[in-house]
Design goal:
The chain is mainly alpha-helical. The longest helix has 17 residues. The N and C termini lie far apart (about 80 Å).
Length: about 110
């Protein structure tokens, strides 16, 4: 039986054996950088444990709401909505120099 050599290396070159590297932190970083593209649910759960943990790793910033939004627990929902509204407005603002505003008054 004849087996065709698929390698691009010239005949007689020793085959390179790739060893699996166990680097969970590097794998987590690669998943975060890829934005989950082409990653299975099982792989995400293996590296992050839950959707909440994946979210916490993917979103930069403070992790404790009490540090982020100090105040009484009763008003936390309102403060959280206000914070998220401000953050989304900032993210949705146009990037680059503002257009000329000559002749217009600020609103």
């Amino acid at each position: 039986m004849y087996i065709k050599r698929i390698s691009k290396e010239p005949p007689g070159t020793p085959a390179v054996v790739r060893k699996r590297v166990r680097a969970p932190e590097a794998h987590r970083e690669a998943i975060l950088e890829a934005g989950r593209a082409g990653v299975t649910h099982g792989l995400l759960m293996r590296h992050f444990g839950s959707k909440e943990q994946l979210f916490l790793m993917a979103v930069p910033g403070p992790r404790d709401l009490h540090e982020l939004l100090p105040g009484p627990p009763e008003t936390m929902p309102e403060r959280l909505v206000a914070y998220l509204t401000r953050t989304l407005r900032r993210l949705l603002e146009p990037v680059g120099p503002p257009e000329s505003s000559e002749g217009t008054s600020p609103s």
